[in-house]
């Protein structure tokens, strides 16, 4: 599925004059969501920057019909909405747009429940690797070594491997994406919308405010995450996992850029010691191995099943 | 208050899609992106990546809406031919 | 008319079916569980055309119910005790959104220690949230009230969610005859789902983004206006239900022999039946008492309480829960209203039946007669708390 | 008429179902009723309680039954482990599931019925347990005296359809006929 | 003595450090977050010897705090608004277990719509739970009250958890001078952790398994007894704190020019400062008013309210939240108490400042003078709700 | 680690006269817990049968110091307890003993959070595959096709693969166990107690009441679960997953007993249709493949890392 | 009530470890396990698996405490030599 | 003495810190103070507000400042986009960060200081932004007239230790000296 920028219509799904910070990756992501799903998408937004970006009542910068909801209840609210639309025969794609905190921490039981029930929704985790809306506190998706206002000396635990955990839920569709690769993200969204049941997309969203890089570098940093192998783009569908094209080159470890290039742009890593860097690199390798192994094995499995 | 959304005389916690939900965010800008059309190759990457949809496609190419452009510089950063300069507002 | 022997919980399930509820999301908790079990059976049997979402917690139960409701479906959930506490946040959200939802609460004590028996702490704990809150006296009323709840909540003048309360075990698990109205009759009386607004592709609102203080305050004010209007609607719906089906309960408050009484007893829920028995017996013994059965703790029937209590010598309030550090919540509410009386009657708040302690009509006779005797003897007084620990028999 | 009944059984024996069906049967006679369990940790085999009230007026009270007019014992071994006579009104009735007359001290009317045999004869058995709730129901109706076996059968058939209803109805009828007063 | 310029939140964090808290578990929420950020910094710097558990939700925050406390550690958490609602279930559990825990609540409005400004709905919503609940007027009091909270909760006569409330932004994010007591002085005044029982290998209890109704009811009764005793302890601790450190606040209720006043204003929290200003100005204009600043909504100072209000012509209650369908919660409580008065004073409940609407001393002057004028003109009346929407200035 | 039954002391960690149903697997499991950890274990028990088994206040059948806690908060309460003991220098092993509902549904965010923080606790999920304490409602761990009182015609979704999900959390220790294999379970408990950080053990616990089999068959049914391959015993430690001895024979699909043998003892599967059985069997194979693949891959990985 | 746990005059939601927390559960039994010592090989599997710890090891071998044995039959089921008979109580 | 001050800045310029340090400095002079932000969605670059009260008596009131005695403008471009003079008392003071005198209509005392230059000179720059809060603080103290530069320096040094404190102190001093009244 490729995107012809020339032909893409000029619809603004986040209308100018919104409340996002300059360089905001969440606003960027919402733009792609609109490009992919158009007027069919109904948003469910648990607390987070995306609740604020909307701006102040009675105005709203989102062009999507939106249900704001308490922090822990993104997935379950969406499950209810989807059930209602089904009962009433209404045509819509129910999309949860939740931060890493809303997804991987407080909302995780709700998410996991919807996955297990196979509720007919698309759940998108917009991962800026901390609680940004409350001022940059650590989440379970904050990477090892990163400063936040609750980990002054750098986080001591690794980023929870949420995509892997969601794959382990063995749901119809799981994918990762990045704001730097809109074509890839949009294609995944369109694919997800065509599948019945539970779909999970994990969008990597570097935040200039929380990661402490200059606002113009959002795309640059996001790209580096992929190029250094810190973030792996893949798609898991019908039981088969496949590393996505933008990430495929980095299956070869030699091709990955040094993590330091990614780190050094971000002041949140300012206290990272050398041994921390080694630890981070080790984790990157391990994580790659998991996903490459899964690609190998699931595609082999698929063949034997066919 | 008179703007709040009322249905059957109830004041509801609703909002409607609209520009300027936070006002004219052009005022936030301290730097300003300026397109050098002579360099521009119409690749539309700036259009694609602008987080705030303030770049439009027109007959003449890409156009920035300065009323709302927050001056983040993403467009300048992604432009493959460095056709966008980023100049201080004052 | 088809009278079935049903538990209170099954009566609620039947009412939900009769109301043609479209989405149910719920989570098990004793003593609520059999409501959802029954609904699950009805749905799987094809008797009921609804989607049942078997959520993973009560927080999600109400969130999913809310989601369905804001999407335009008639939606229902049920819970009790800790389940209600766990979804507490979402109660506030639902009311704030002004979305009609009906929930059954089978009142049960709160731990620790664990205790599964009736107690009104859980339901009373919701009284700030913006929900309409009612309590049934028996299984029939649980059925009728559940049906009425859809009419009340979806009324143009209301659009607030509502709790139908019933006491654990003594209603929820007690079999008694219930007149289960015929579907076609219910269909005539209860119109299809209505609500102030829906969110879907045709209705592109955002619900709930940030509001600045003054706008926010206006919205809160508006909830209160709806609560005020709900008083009238509750009375009206109960009256009309009576005209249609022959059963009415007195709206916000049932006055049982209260007009000519010198003393009143205020209480909520299933022990009202025992209290009525007690009142009848006491009257035989010359105690001139009546009952003010509070059917709705929210909205509070301020005007009716004042009216019914006017000229009485004493008002006794029986609470099945306590607001620690103050008094029984019903006592607090009623005494607050009675302070509006130039000269309030003598009053006492009795705390009894907490955590399922059995309180029979003989106990209630003792409690009432003691109060009356005290007032007659000592004259006017107000006692905020008297603990009644059941004893004999 | 206002009767309060307490049933002693074991977890899994269906005491509550029996009480419930008794109320349904009473309903068919134009009476009112109420049936409820004592709800605690009800474990298979453990002693449990169920209650019923039958009246010719609507029943408003919901409190526990502490001084029953009648006590029903689903399992005679319960006599040894719980005080089945607690609170039973003087002159009250006792109905026991037992193959033979049993002795009870005190001024009570005592009845017995061999519900277990009836159940076994009709192959009403699940997981090694005889299903004695319907025979006990039949016997209860008889001892109470004011509920007809027809209403009992009707109540049973609203609860179980088809074959199962038939057999249970037969079980109730047999017990209705065979219950005996110990004199 | 070292006076620092601190926000209310930092003042609380400092008090937590001074109290030698051993375990902190908390979750971010505006406007509470800076408390935990500051504590996190102190812990990571090695300034404070505590374990910080960076939990994944507020439900877990209080559960972990409770776990630490029942295991014998001095434990603290903090939250606001939806966070408080999300942990609501665990508040009940903590109080029921009779385990001392201290929590700061930065009062904030409840959604929808989202609103981060001050409003007392969240804290008032906890008033049934068995927690002691207090509100500070300024940053210094936030500091002092937090320290006092450990003494109060761990007192042999209490053993109940306690909330220290402070208003969003107008305290939490406002810098003002705070006298941060020296560690050695605090150490002398605040003994190490005490509690009724601990669960560990040496203390092989089980806490919280099932209790039958009568036993359960006795335990609930016992919580109420502890609440009653807490009244004395709160007064005592405040008095002793004053003797030790030179600052006392009047215990359960601060009476500001209330003894000689003809009219009283009751309220809680930071706007009391503005109210005092208003009272001083009004007195210059011949309005004889005083303030009854409710520092603790639980336990409710029934006796003191009766005492202070006795002989007054009117009592005005200002609520910063509403219990929908009834009135402001403070109004409900106070009017309930005043019903114990043979003849209650004139009363009015004013609802103001909801969702952070700014209420200045001039607003309060208007509100008070209007009330006084009305009473003087119309004579006795009770009005449960009057909404004050700030206007001019 | 082997157990000498002759020498094992006769201490009763669940004292006779408890409230469990005849044949209860949870009581059985608690007995093994006591045998493994002795007086060091402190229990945290969220709502479930194990709250009831204790009996009625003021008595308690557990010999363990026990903190009963609200349903969703097992892991977090334990995290707090462990922190307190650490601060106070108290010696104890904090153990969460939670049902499948408390673990995989309502308590899942709390569990996942503790795993990510690497809290020093042992979390045991006692999996009887439904909400038993409230009368047999479906949980996310109820298997496909099983009747419960909220799935009258049999559950339509597969059992959530929670052990896999916990392995995906990449914590220090994850294991599965079964009440039929006490030696294995006890050894795993002892190993877990020797590791610092977060440990997860998933105990399969067939319940006669909820699964509708005769009370004497608890061990028989549990064994059949392993022998048919419906339940796989494994251990994941230091990044290496290994199928445990009792399950190793069944890595060979031929050796597995037909699932029907397991199913037929349990009345909860009475409505299982033939196609459902096929679906179940397919799932078993898939699951085995996951774990065998993980064993292969992680042990290979381990070697390359050494 | 007098049994409830009181500390410093507070009635607390605590319990202490004790037998018979639900009474003498032997009364629940409808079937009774009876060991045929002549067959028993002292493998202790019954001891190991009895969910309720009512089988003890003694000099003479395994002993069942009938005051508490709930009669589930697990012991009989696991006995490798079928040395435990399971007989109706009455 | 009771002064109410409103500061107009942009998100990221440190207006609140300046207000806070002003209060601390006042504290060292035996005065009382209060500093607070208007807390909304504070985004980098977006116009923001901070407030301060200075008094010689303890300050009890906590309400918003609607009629300030003094207005401070961190960024002259704000004049175009917000009503910086709203509510300013007649005769009130205005302090603007500006390289040159600016014109303000109305009967106010207007001051200006080139805080940006001071910051740039001292290399007080982060991510391309001049850190002007300490020079503006120095200027504020001077314009207020009753807070000594010593107290300002002391306040700065309690907030930043070492080198950073030194440089910021110099910035404040330079501004204290160079602020000018427009006449
Ligand atoms: C129950 C509850 N707890 C806490 C909050 C406060 N809160 C709002 S947004 C947020 C952080 C959101 O972080 P994330 O989900 O990562 O989204 P982001 O802001 O980074 O987009 C928090 C903690 C809340 N609204 N509700
Ligand atoms: C918040 C809350 N919701 C629901 C309940 C009711 N509840 C108690 S135990 C239980 C089921 C437990 O199931 P599981 O965790 O599988 O344990 P089991 O009973 O099967 O051992 C439920 C739903 C509760 N106590 N608290
Ligand atoms: S903090 Fe980051 S994610 Fe949030 S609005 Fe600002 S830029 Fe976007
Ligand atoms: S500077 Fe930022 S907001 Fe302005 S046009 Fe470029 S990308 Fe868009
Ligand atoms: S990115 Fe550069 S080249 Fe491409 S359209 Fe924009 S200005 Fe032109
Ligand atoms: S229901 Fe099952 S798990 Fe629960 S106590 Fe009974 S046998 Fe044990
Ligand atoms: S029958 Fe059950 S309880 Fe009795 S000894 Fe055997 S295993 Fe134990
Ligand atoms: S299981 Fe059988 S052989 Fe083994 S000890 Fe028990 S009775 Fe003896
Ligand atoms: Mg985030
Ligand atoms: Mg279970």
Question: What are the main properties of this structure?
Answer:
heterooctamer; A: alpha/beta; Rossmann fold; eight-stranded mixed beta sheet; 9 strands; B: 90 residues; mainly beta; Alpha-Beta Plaits; two-stranded antiparallel ribbon; 2 helices; elongated; binds thiamine diphosphate; binds iron/sulfur cluster; binds magnesium ion
User: What is the CA-based Rg of chain C, rounded?
Assistant: 21 Å
Low-confidence stretches of chain D: none
Order of helices and strands of chain C: EHEHEHEHHEHEHEEHEHEEHEEHEHEHE
Number of distinct beta strands of chain C: 16
Strand percentage of chain D? 15-25%
What is the correct CATH architecture of chain D? 3-Layer(aba) Sandwich
CATH topology annotation of chain D: Pyruvate-ferredoxin Oxidoreductase, domain 3
CATH topology label of the largest domain in chain C: Rossmann fold
Structural class estimated from helices and strands of chain C? alpha/beta
Query: How would you write the strand order of the largest sheet of chain D?
Result: 2-3-1-4-5-6-9
Query: Which strand order spans the largest sheet of chain C, edge to edge or round the barrel?
Result: 3-2-4-5-7-6-13
- Named at the architecture level, the CATH assignment of the largest domain in chain C is 3-Layer(aba) Sandwich
Q: How much of the polypeptide of chain C forms β-strand, as a percent range? A: 15-25%
- State Rg of chain D: 15 Å
Distance between the termini of chain D: 25 Å
Envelope shape of chain D: globular
Structural class of chain D: alpha/beta
């Amino acid at each position: 599925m490729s995107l012809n920028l020339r032909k893409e219509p000029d619809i603004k799904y986040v209308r100018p004059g919104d409340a996002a910070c300059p360089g905001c990756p969440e606003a960027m992501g919402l733009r792609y969501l609109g490009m992919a799903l158009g007027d069919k998408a109904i948003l469910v937004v648990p607390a987070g920057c995306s609740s604020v970006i909307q701006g102040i009542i009675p105005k709203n910068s989102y062009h999507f019909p939106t249900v704001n909801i308490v922090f822990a209840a993104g997935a379950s609210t969406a499950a209810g909405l989807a059930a209602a639309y089904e009962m009433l025969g209404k045509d819509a794609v129910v999309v949860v747009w939740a931060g890493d905190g809303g997804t991987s921490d407080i909302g995780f039981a709700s998410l996991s429940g919807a996955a297990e029930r196979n509720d007919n929704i698309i759940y998108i985790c917009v991962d800026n690797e901390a609680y940004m809306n409350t001022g940059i506190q650590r989440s379970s998706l904050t990477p090892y070594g990163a400063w936040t206002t609750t980990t002054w000396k750098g986080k001591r635990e690794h980023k929870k491997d949420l995509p892997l955990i969601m794959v382990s839920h063995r749901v119809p569709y799981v994918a990762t994406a990045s704001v730097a690769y809109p074509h890839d993200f949009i294609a995944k969204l369109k694919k997800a919308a065509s599948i019945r049941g539970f779909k999970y997309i994990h969008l990597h969203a570097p935040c200039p405010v929380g990661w402490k890089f200059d606002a113009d570098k959002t795309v640059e940093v996001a790209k580096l995450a992929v190029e250094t192998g810190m973030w792996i783009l893949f798609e898991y569908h019908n039981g088969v996992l496949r590393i996505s094209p933008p990430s495929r080159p980095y299956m070869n470890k030699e091709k990955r850029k040094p993590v330091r290039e990614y780190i050094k742009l971000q002041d949140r890593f300012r206290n990272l010691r050398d041994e921390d860097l080694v630890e981070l690199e080790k984790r990157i390798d391990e994580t790659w191995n998991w996903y490459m192994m899964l690609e190998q094995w699931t595609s082999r499995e698929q063949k034997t099943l066919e | 208050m008179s703007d709040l959304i009322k249905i059957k005389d109830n004041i509801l916690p609703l909002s409607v899609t609209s520009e300027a939900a936070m006002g004219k965010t052009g005022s936030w800008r301290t730097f300003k992106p300026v397109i050098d059309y002579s360099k521009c190759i119409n690749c539309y990457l700036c259009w694609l990546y602008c987080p705030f949809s303030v770049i439009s496609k027109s007959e003449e190419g890409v156009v920035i809406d300065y009323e709302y452009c927050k001056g983040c510089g993403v467009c300048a950063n992604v432009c493959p031919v460095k056709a966008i300069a980023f100049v201080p507002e004052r | 008319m088809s009278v079935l022997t049903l538990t209170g919980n099954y009566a609620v399930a039947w009412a939900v079916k009769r109301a043609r509820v479209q989405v149910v999301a719920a989570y098990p908790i004793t003593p609520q569980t059999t409501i959802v079990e029954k609904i699950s059976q009805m749905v799987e049997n094809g008797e009921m055309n609804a989607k049942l979402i078997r959520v993973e917690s009560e927080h999600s139960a109400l969130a999913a119910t809310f989601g369905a409701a804001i999407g335009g479906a008639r939606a229902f959930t049920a819970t009790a005790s800790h389940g209600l506490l766990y979804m507490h946040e979402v109660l506030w959200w639902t009311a704030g959104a002004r979305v009609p939802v009906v929930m059954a609460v089978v009142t049960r004590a709160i731990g620790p220690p664990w205790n599964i028996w009736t107690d009104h702490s859980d339901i009373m704990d919701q009284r700030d949230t913006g929900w309409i809150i009612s309590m049934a006296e028996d299984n029939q009323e649980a059925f009728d009230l559940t049906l009425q709840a859809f009419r009340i909540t979806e009324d143009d003048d209301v659009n607030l969610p509502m709790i139908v309360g019933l006491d654990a075990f003594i209603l929820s698990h007690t079999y008694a005859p219930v007149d289960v109205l015929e579907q076609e009759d219910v269909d005539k009386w209860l119109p299809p789902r209505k609500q102030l607004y829906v969110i879907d592709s045709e209705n592109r609102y955002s619900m709930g983004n940030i509001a600045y203080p003054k706008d926010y305050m206006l919205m809160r004010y508006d909830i209160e206006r709806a609560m005020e209007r709900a008083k009238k609607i509750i009375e009206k719906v109960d009256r009309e239900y009576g005209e249609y089906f022959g059963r009415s309960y007195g709206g916000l408050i049932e006055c049982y022999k209260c007009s000519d009484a010198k003393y009143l007893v205020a209480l909520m829920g299933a022990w009202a039946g025992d209290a009525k028995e007690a009142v009848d017996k006491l009257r035989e013994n010359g105690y001139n008492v009546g009952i003010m059965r509070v059917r709705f703790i929210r909205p509070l029937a301020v005007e009716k309480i004042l009216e019914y209590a006017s000229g009485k010598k004493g008002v006794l309030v029986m609470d099945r829960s306590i607001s620690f550090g103050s008094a029984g919540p019903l006592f607090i509410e009623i005494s607050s209203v009675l302070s509006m009386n130039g000269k309030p009657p003598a009053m006492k708040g009795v705390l009894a039946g907490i955590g399922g302690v059995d309180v029979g009509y003989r106990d209630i006779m003792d409690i009432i007669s003691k109060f009356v005797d005290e007032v007659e003897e000592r004259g006017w007084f107000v006692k905020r708390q008297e603990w009644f620990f059941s004893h004999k028999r | 008429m206002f009767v309060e009944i307490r049933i002693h059984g074991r977890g899994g024996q269906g005491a509550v179902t029996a009480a419930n069906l008794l109320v349904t049967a009473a309903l068919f006679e134009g009476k009112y009723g109420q049936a409820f369990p004592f709800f605690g940790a009800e474990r298979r085999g453990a002693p449990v309680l169920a209650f019923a009230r039958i009246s010719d007026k609507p029943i408003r009270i919901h409190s526990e039954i502490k001084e029953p007019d009648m006590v029903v014992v689903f399992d005679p071994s319960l006599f040894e482990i719980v005080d089945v006579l607690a609170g039973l009104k003087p002159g009250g009735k006792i109905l026991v599931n037992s193959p033979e007359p049993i002795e009870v001290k005190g001024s009570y009317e005592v009845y017995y019925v061999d519900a277990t045999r009836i159940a076994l004869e009709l192959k009403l058995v699940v997981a090694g347990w005889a299903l004695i709730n319907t025979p006990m129901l039949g016997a209860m109706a008889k001892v109470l005296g004011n509920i007809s076996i027809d209403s009992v059968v009707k109540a049973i058939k609203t609860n179980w359809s088809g074959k199962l209803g038939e057999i249970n109805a037969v079980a109730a009828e047999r017990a209705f006929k065979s219950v005996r007063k110990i004199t």
